[in-house]
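Subject: complex prediction, re-run

Hi both,

The earlier run crashed halfway through, so I resubmitted it with identical inputs.
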Amino acid sequence: MGKRINRQSVVTLLGVLLVYAIVQGSILMDILPPFVALTLIQVCIFIILSTSLNLINGITGQFSIGHAGFMAIGAYMAAIVVVKFQGPLMLALLAGALVSALAGFLIGLPTLRLKGDYLAIATLGFGEIVRIIFLNMEYVGGASGFSVPKTITWTWAFWLMVISVVIIRNFIYSTHGRACISIRENEIAADVMGINTTKYKIMAFTIGAFFAGLAGGIYANYLYIIQPLTFSFLKSFDILVMVVLGGLGSLTGSILGAVVMTVVSAALSGWPEWRLVITAILLIVMMIFRPKGLLGTKEFSLSFLGKKGEKNASSKD
Amino acid sequence: MPLLKIEKLSKSFGGLKAVSNLNIEINEGELIGLIGPNGAGKTTAFNLLTGVYEQTEGKILFQDKDMRGLKPYHVTQRGMARTFQNIRLFSDLSVIDNVKIAYHQRSSYGIFSAFLRLPSYYVGEEEMQRKAMELLKIFNLDHKAEEIAKNLPYGEQRRLEIARALGTEPKLLLLDEPAAGMNPQETHDLMNLIRWIREKFKLTILLIEHDMSLVMGVCERIYVLDYGMIIAQGAPDEIKSNPKVIEAYLGEEVV
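This time it finished cleanly. Structure:
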């Protein structure tokens, strides 16, 4: 406490800069195979998706599986701004994220009255509705897809990912984040402690949708073409698997989950029929040996680098 | 003007009248007990007061304001806090986080300060940390601040629940069977604690209890509830000798 910059955050920052520099360097020197570059940007996109879903599922404890729907809204909105209105990339990404957040807010109002399985079904339905709307919209190309120029570079994807993760982390370790966690822990007690549980559920949902929309925008401006089929419920499940694999409620777990799953998918890209099989086996093994996910609700920390007193930096800072 | 005035309060679940025609008046600074046999409607009365249930009939006036239709978080923000019969801590969180959550409603910084870690975030968090630690110190839990709540011994969990309720800075504290599951020594300590926090925080306390020694020991006035109705009220000594109360607790004497 008191000390706003500790050794741990300096080390983290250096690590982030190092990762960026190595990848950017190898891109500049043209030694990075294009397939690896593609995978790295996908890792960034999925990290944004998994951490934002974790905010809803792991931190607030509301089981949502419609994240691909928000991603689709962000992707199509950003694509419309870029292609139809020739808007700048930054504006397009922001528009996508904001419209997605608005959708999250509007969907959250009625559905967050539901609990558990019912909420899961409602959000699943929402995701599919979004996909089918885009499928039938000739304005954005319908089933054949919507071509978008590729403007996202590693620099964009990486730093947008870092900013997203930092903002989500800052939210979680604030009094507002604690309010969300208290809902997960015991909703009745949270209510009695003066926390407007509905407000915070919707807030988490909206913030989650915002970042899913941002990730969608990055995706759209990177892959030349977006198709409704990309945003099917299988995508939602992919993101959910990353969150569960890493540990519900652990931000670093979600990052780890996103990295592992994206790399595994990429490595198996030669045998697409095996991808889902391996994912399923991975999850089953996980549920047997580590049902709480790789990191549980804990955060990976660099505390062993710090002196005493910084041990609980994650819960104190 | 009484702090809390309950007028003709009733609650029915279908055909069952859990509470009927309840009249209670509590003045500022009093320590009142609400007792009664199992199923008499005590906890229902608490749930009505804190907005968990809505009354079928009657009125609850807290500081002269009607509480009808308020959500539990709203009731808490108005200055009424409670504990639960079966402890409801945020059991996987640290002790200090439990208390900090109670301070949330008075947090001083907004969500954008949180996103961007503006200076107001640091000021707000430091203040919350300080207040929470002070409160834990009062309850002698400060050395366990970083422990996970569910790992505390039972008695300390009870104390933490009271501390957490006080974190919302209430005027009226409702304690639902605070001594449940405690041994006589712990009950005795709890009695002193209740007396002491009343002085320290200038509280008004309404407590539900089964443990007669606790109720008779600390309460100034007692209401006795049976089958959802008040059957007696008065000072502990009057209650002890009231034949209706004895009948409700022990059954009628067979001659």
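Chain A touches chain B at residues 1-2, 4, 167, 170-171, 174-179, 181-182, 185-186, 188-197, 203, 297, 312, 315-316 (CB under 8 Å).

- K.
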